[in-house]
Amino acid sequence: MTQCETKRSCMTGRTAAIVMLTLLIFANPTTVAWTAEDAPSCLSATGEAALAPCRRELLRDPGNLEIRFALSDAFMGLRRYADAVAVLQEGLENFPGDDAIKKKLILAESYLDEQQYIEKQQKSAAAASRSKKQDTQIRLSIIRCEKLKGDAAMTACNDGLAVNPDHPKLLTGRGNVWLEMDRFGNAIRDYETALAADPKNREATKNLRLAQTKREIKVAQCLQAGGPDGLKACDAALMKGASDEFAVQKRRAGLLQAMGREKEAIEAYRVAAGLNPADGQIKQSLAALSPRSETTTRQAPAPSPIVSQATGASTDKPLPPPEKKSPTRPVAPASVPKKTMVAKPEPPVQSPPAKTFDSPAVKKPVPAPTKASPPIEMAALQPRQYSNAPEVPGITH
């Protein structure tokens, strides 16, 4: 069998194969080193073990159909049908009239088409499963959103809208919950969004008019009433994006300030300032409230300057630390009279005879009686005794 119709076409196909496999080598560095054992390894191995030696051998000899078929079979065994088709198409370009290559290429392409079809079906099934699951969740959310009340209904509506944010029934249901809570601004917004998705929604159309009428009443109460009633009316009428949002927010801030809720008043004033930065009254209110309410901790008072007694000038030098006092004995209770606080000698000793100084004779010194040492505090308070007798040599006082 002639593998090339002309010598020139055969050389051109081989050159293209060499270029293609050279690029393949640079993409896979493990195929660079060629050995004499690549051909036997390629023909005897299967799967991943056959890829590297077959690629190296095919780079060395692009016209070797046996090696090319072995490489395509290895790709087919790994279910890499796209790679097998690429290898066989390259061989068909080099040998256009080879029937063996055509047969193998048709088989590889059929496997590739089947694989792509299965993957497409799997993706479609997964998408359908997700869609079915979402539909089930939305249906349950609609039932709960419409049947429950209060926070439970709000939670159900939000769960469904997390899956489908533009669902008309869920938006209408949440608008109804807002309407029951007297949050007319939020209700109006949900009704308008529901009508944008479904203009024929009769329930949303009817409840939208009701919510708008009730909100107008609350706006009037907000701007006129005071105290908790006025604040409640402002909360019910507040609606983002409305033409009267600034007036309602400013009034709400003033009511909060009048009720002593200064932190909330500051937040409301800031929102109002964002809506109308040129309002001078809001700036004054913020300036008056911020130093009082935003300071959470009191700063320690600054140390007073030390005044010199000699010059009268103040100095910033700190006072010396106080001296540590030695531990003292406990003092007797204050209720005890002073005279009982005087320490008495223990045991009592008879006082010596009084000294006479009219005799010229020198008397022997009399030893001082032993006295118990009084407490430190009382010893410091006792006056020192002094004698007016003349000093006589050899006699101590």
Structure, explained:
The protein has 397 residues and is mainly alpha-helical. Helices cover 60% and strands 1% of the residues. It is built from 15 helices and 2 strands. It has helices spanning 7-27, 38-44, 48-60, 65-77, 81-94, 99-147, 150-163, 168-180, 184-197, 202-224, 227-237, 245-258, 262-275, 280-293, 376-381, and strands at residues 306-307, 314-315. It has a two-stranded antiparallel sheet with strand order 1-2. Strand 1 and strand 2 (314-315) form a beta hairpin. It is elongated and about 100 Å long. The termini are far apart.
Task: Please provide a brief summary of the model.
The chain is mainly alpha-helical. The protein is built from 15 helices and two strands. A two-stranded antiparallel sheet has the order 1-2.
Question: What's the topology here?
Answer:
Elements (H helix, E strand, L loop, with lengths): L6 H21 L10 H7 L3 H13 L4 H13 L3 H14 L4 H49 L2 H14 L4 H13 L3 H14 L4 H23 L2 H11 L7 H14 L3 H14 L4 H14 L12 E2 L6 E2 L60 H6 L16
Antiparallel strand pairs: 1-2
Helix pairs in contact: 1-3, 1-5, 2-3, 3-4, 4-5, 5-6, 6-7, 6-8, 7-8, 8-9, 8-10, 9-10, 10-11, 11-12, 12-13, 13-14
Strand content: under 5%
Strand numbers in spatial order across the main sheet: 1-2
From the helix content, strand content and strand pairing, which structural class follows? mainly alpha
H-E order: HHHHHHHHHHHHHHEEH
Specify Rg, calculated over alpha carbons.
53 Å
Biggest sheet descriptor: 2 strands, antiparallel
Helical run tally: 15
Low-confidence stretches: 1-15, 21-34, 293-300, 303-318, 330-344, 354-363, 373-383
Distance between the termini: 152 Å
